Amino acid sequence: MSKDQILEAFNSSPRIARGLWWSSLVDESILRQWLTNLGQRFAYERMAHIFCELWLRMTIVGLADGDEFHLPLTQNQLGDTIGLTPVHVNRTLQRMRSEGLIEFEQRRLKICDIDKLKDIAEFNSDYLHLERR
Fold first, then answer.
1. Cα Rg of the chain (Å, integer)
2. Which of 99, 100, 102, 79 has the alpha carbon at shortest distance from 89?
3. Mean pLDDT in the chain?
4. Partners of 111 in the β-ladder
5. Measured between alpha carbons, how far is residue 53 from residues 6, 14, 20, 36, 99 in Å?
6. CA separation for the pair 112, 105 (Å, rounded)
7. Which class for 81: exposed (0-12), middle (13-18), buried (19 or more C-beta within 10 A)?
8. In this structure, are residues 31 and 128 in contact, taking their beta carbons and an 8 Å threshold?
9. The 68-70 sheet, strands edge to edge
10. Of 17, 45, 40, whose CA–CA distance to 116 is shortest?
11. What pTM does this model have?
């Protein structure tokens, strides 16, 4: 779509314009949260945060089976996502397992204690703008 076509769609349909504007605001909010995650949280809190976010998003779209969902990421990919080395990812996962927070086997993540994980991550889902106003 060209710039002119997009502007015409905005002008002819305020609902489309409002929807795209809202989507943009949500994207920016998520970006701010992820920047905070990378810049101000330790590895343990980072991983807890991404697991909370992924679990919530998967639950909302019906892809979580209770406290469990498919997570087809390798430890390297997970590390790239949250800015950690594979060794640090492995150590952090082992710590979470040993503390009974998660189980992560065969690309399935089971969150055993979501409330504790949220506390560790200081997770507040408001930045996802999931509730209608």
1. 18
2. 79
3. 91
4. 102
5. 31, 31, 22, 14, 20
6. 13
7. middle
8. no
9. 64-65, 68-70, 108-111, 102-105
10. 45
11. 0.83
Q: Can you give 28-45 as a three-state secondary structure string? A: HHHHHHHHHHHHHCCHHH
Cα angle 1, 11, 13 (rounded to 5 degrees) comes to 85
Residue in this structure with the two tokens 């943009």, named with its chain if needed: 24
* Residue that has been written with the tokens 């995650």 in this structure: 37
Per-residue pLDDT of the chain (133 residues; tens, 9 = 90+): 788 888 888 788 888 888 888 888 888 888 888 888 788 889 999 999 999 999 999 999 999 999 999 999 999 999 999 999 999 999 999 999 999 999 999 999 999 999 999 999 999 998 888 876 5
- Rounded CA separation 63/126 (Å): 21
